[in-house]
Amino acid sequence: MLRFIQALAVPVGLTLLIGSAAAATTPLRTGVDPNFPPHAFPKLSGGYQGFNVELGEEIARRLGRPLEIEGAQYSALIPALNAKKFDFLMAPTTVSQERAKSVLLTEGYLDNNFTLVVKKSRDDVKDIKDFKGKTVAVNKGSGPEEWARNNQAQYGYEIAVYGTNADAVQAVISGRADANLAGLTPSAWAVKSNPTIKTVSVIKTGSVWAIPFRIDDKVGRDEVSNVLKCMKKDGSLTKLYTKWFGGSPEPDSATVVSPAGHGVPDHFGYEAAPVTPRCSS
Fold this sequence. Notes:
Elements: E1 2-6, H1 21-25, E2 28-32, E3 41-42, E4 48-49, H2 51-63, E5 67-71, H3 74-82, E6 88-89, E7 93-94, E8 104-111, E9 114-119, E10 135-139, H4 143-155, E11 158-162, H5 165-174, E12 179-183, H6 184-193, E13 197-203, E14 208-213, H7 218-233, H8 236-245
Parallel strand pairs: 2-5, 2-6, 10-11, 10-12
Antiparallel strand pairs: 1-5, 3-4, 7-14, 8-14, 9-12, 9-13
């Protein structure tokens, strides 16, 4: 694992929580998949950059805390979180009923639909139904892997699991896999970076990405969920979306709309009691 402390300026008066001076200087610890552009990837000068990195930095800034970021393969992050190595994870984490039983989730911050990355020369595959008997590559431990396994019997494809999504994309380029199933944003970035591949089809999952905490850390989850509500309210989350993905999020998307309470509605850990965000300008 690689560890970096992101230097953050903390203006006086922006701290949302009242605590001791010692607590205010204790870094928040978070984990990312460092090979998952445009969400998290290395900077030439050291440290990480990407949508999720900047979102984590802004959360820490609004909480009046420095942020320590560590990179690891996604499959190792939730076990590390539950072992108290991290306070929360900024790696994109797909919400599912099963996952909501093992971690406590904030509200969503991005819709999480999937697509298929294939070689640009392929014109025989246009939809997931076309992959019967073919190989679909996925990132180990990810939401796309979970979706692929849940739908494998229906569509009849083989699944190849890779430690990073970049490796799964490379499997497509090298011919070891017919497609990479992944989120729309990392797939768009991969296609932009390599002219030999393209995306086909969009798989609407109805799911979102949220920030996971340990199941017993309700205080931490609620603090960060409050920040997300404030960022949606003041438009800063939409601005971050546009910076990294281009365009604007859909008006009814998780980037714009907050649920009444804390967490993801209709999932374990959601608290439906209406919350009034506590925001600082």
